[in-house]
Design goal:
This protein is mostly helical. It contains two helices and no strands.
Length: about 100
């Protein structure tokens, strides 16, 4: 009878441990998902800025001013920032996949 009680106590402890791990994984997945959402919002804002810059550049070119050096620098910086956010999104997707598949 004591062996059965010990076995049941161990099973309950294992279930509690598994429950805690699942809660931790769920919290990590929620945090990661929130970060992905924040990054997507930032990307939308960057796209709006890019569109405004393109409109401004078009107006300046229409007036005959040359800004090729500045435009190239801004485009390079913008592309670098977009690349960083895309990398973060890819990494977050990988983390979410790892959290739910347990691999």
């Amino acid at each position: 009878m004591d062996d059965i009680k010990v076995a049941l106590a161990r099973m309950e402890a294992n279930q509690d441990s598994i429950g805690k791990r699942l809660n931790d994984m769920g919290g990590t997945a929620r945090t990661t998902a929130n970060e992905v959402i924040k990054h997507s919002v930032m990307l939308k804002e960057l796209n709006k800025v890019r569109e405004r810059e393109e409109k401004r550049d078009k107006k300046i070119q229409d007036h005959g001013e040359s800004i090729s050096g500045i435009k190239a620098t801004v485009a390079t910086q913008r592309n670098l920032i977009i690349g960083i956010f895309l990398s973060l999104g890819t990494m977050a997707t990988w983390i979410i996949r790892k959290a739910f598949t347990g691999q």
